[in-house]
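Design request, tokens follow.
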């Protein structure tokens, strides 16, 4: 299954089919037929929503959707964390709604990063029901009116507005195709490294919807913008403007901060721990290239990589494969290599990577940053969120 996923991914991101192997080409007719079925199902679903057979629910608080048009690696989860932290710091308690895909590695990482803030986490396929349960439990405050509303069924005790318990906004993780909840703001993430692949619908290509769906976006964010050339960024912006001329475009990057040992989560080691080291990057994420390129910038001696499909859960056989590669590197360079993984890989199963001992296994901690680029800044991005949501933030710290 892992090999099949890799082959399908290679087809989806190959722009010249003539360069594909016979195995790859033999799968194209089947993937093309499946893609046609997917297109029909997508069109039917859209028609049913348009005709009112499926209902779209409005929540009692502002809703921000963070999504994309392709599978994996677009920076959705880091953007959800960025927005949730900004809301919490501004005095608005955010509820993050996630479907908890593939074991919930992304939710685990968000909960760890946002621990100690007012952020709350609702996980489940039925996000309408999950949001209702949380609003019932904690109450809500309409941050657009700067007023307070008490928890249902409580005894009328008056509390100050923006009680940290009360939910003031909802952030939908990976929700561009989740149409059951009305959103006040649609943020669409684009991976600057891979873009939209061959521009075909799944599974022949990586697209969940045709590119014209970008017209629904209120804000488009080009992620990993620091890893691509100015020429490519110009092309990306030109494509977007050709679909939706006036949409605001921002640019983001991942900012590596420190490393920690898989066995000691509270440890913090400087990035210089990788200087002149032989490193094996191991990842099961949507955009492994960005992770590897980030490590290569850290003045390492040599960087090798083992990539698995997005959300892949490591098993004992994978550990043996990784260990075998580490021993090859040790013999090649007469130096014990260091394994570096992403936080998503760590949070998927914090224990199994410890089986690589006595080799060192480090986790890279990174944060999303909005780049000051082409006249766009982080303050402008936050200000646009505030303006488009109509938020009235308490206190002077509005950004």
């Amino acid at each position: 299954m892992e090999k099949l996923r890799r082959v399908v991914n290679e087809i989806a991101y190959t722009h010249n089919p003539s360069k594909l192997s016979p195995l790859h080409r033999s799968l194209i007719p089947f993937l093309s037929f499946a893609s046609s079925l997917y297109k029909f199902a997508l069109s039917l679903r859209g028609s049913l929503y348009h005709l009112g057979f499926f209902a779209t629910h409005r929540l009692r608080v502002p809703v921000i959707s963070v999504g994309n048009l392709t599978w994996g690696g677009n920076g959705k989860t880091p953007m959800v964390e960025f927005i949730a932290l900004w809301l919490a710091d501004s005095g608005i308690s955010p509820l993050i709604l996630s479907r908890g895909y593939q074991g919930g590695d992304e939710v685990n990482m968000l909960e760890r990063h946002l621990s100690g803030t007012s952020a709350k986490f609702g996980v489940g396929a039925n996000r309408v029901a999950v949001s209702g349960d949380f609003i019932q439990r904690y109450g809500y405050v309409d941050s657009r009116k700067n007023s307070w509303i008490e928890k249902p069924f409580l005894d009328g005790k008056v509390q100050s507005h923006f009680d940290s318990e009360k939910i003031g906004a909802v952030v939908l993780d990976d929700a561009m195709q989740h149409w059951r909840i009305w959103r006040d703001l649609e943020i669409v993430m684009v991976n600057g490294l891979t873009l939209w692949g061959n521009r075909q619908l799944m599974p022949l290509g990586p697209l969940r919807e045709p590119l014209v769906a970008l017209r629904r976006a209120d804000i488009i964010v080009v992620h990993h913008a620091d890893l691509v050339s100015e020429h490519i960024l110009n092309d990306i912006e030109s494509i977007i403007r050709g679909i939706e001329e006036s949409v605001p475009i921002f640019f983001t990057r991942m900012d590596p901060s420190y490393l920690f040992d898989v066995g000691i989560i509270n440890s913090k080691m400087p990035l210089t721990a990788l200087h002149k080291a032989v490193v094996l990057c191991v990842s099961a994420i949507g955009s492994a290239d960005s992770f590897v390129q980030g490590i290569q910038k850290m003045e390492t001696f040599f960087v090798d990589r083992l990539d698995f499909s997005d959300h892949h859960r490591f098993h004992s056989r994978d550990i043996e494969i990784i260990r075998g590669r580490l021993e090859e590197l040790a013999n090649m360079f007469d130096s014990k290599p260091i394994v570096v993984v992403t936080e998503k890989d760590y949070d998927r199963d914090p224990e199994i990577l410890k089986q690589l001992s006595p080799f060192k296994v480090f986790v890279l901690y990174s944060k999303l940053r909005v780049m000051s680029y082409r006249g766009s800044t982080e303050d402008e991005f936050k200000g646009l969120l505030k303006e488009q949501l109509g938020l009235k933030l308490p206190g002077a710290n509005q950004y």
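Comment from the thread starter after seeing the answer: thanks! Residues 2-50 form one domain.
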